[in-house]
Amino acid sequence: MSDAGSPDIDPSVPPSGDGCAECLAGEGPGWWFHLRRCANCGHVGCCDSSPSRHSRAHWDETGHSLIQSFEPGEDWFYSWPDDALLAGPELAPPSSHPMEQPTPGPAGRVPPDWMRHLN
Q1: What are the strands of the beta sheet with 84-87, ordered from one edge?
Q2: CA 38 to CA 55: how far, in whole Å?
Q3: Domain residue limits, the chain
Q4: Hey, what CATH topology would domain 8-91 get?
Q5: Could you read off the pLDDT of 21-77 as tens digits, one per residue?
Q6: Alpha carbons within 13 A on the beta-carbon side of 16
């Protein structure tokens, strides 16, 4: 794992919310498998296994190239252009979605056959 000492990381910016911003706004099917946080602006989006891949779309739209897992107990960073896991600084809290929020989530929006919809 390389070190993510990069201008693409702003440790002072908090996450945009507790879940994928676009899924919660009704874009796509409205649920996610895992969450990723933009290390530059704090945008929380859904992972590439999720139906809508909003984290990747955020990179495509903004060029913000580094994300961190927004799952409890995970602190790894990932570089989109390098396709590589990285170590990095502690970001502004919270470091994950709430423990009581299910994975996949959010509660009440995940279809019973959710595994069939993963990428």
Answers
A1: 2-3, 84-87, 77-79, 66-69, 35-38, 44-46
A2: 8
A3: 8-91
A4: Herpes Virus-1 (3.30.40)
A5: 999 999 999 999 999 999 999 999 999 999 999 999 999 999 999 999 999 999 999
A6: 21
What SS3 state is found at 3? Answer: strand
Structure tokens at 70: 């927004």
70: amino acid identity, one letter: F
The DSSP-derived string for 79-117 is: ETTTTEEEE-PPPSSP-SS-TTS-SSBSTTTS-TTGGGG
Instruction: Reply yes or no: is the peptide bond before residue 15 cis, omega within 30 of 0.
Output: no
Q: pTM of the predicted model, to two decimals?
A: 0.93
Tokens describing residue 6: 């990069």
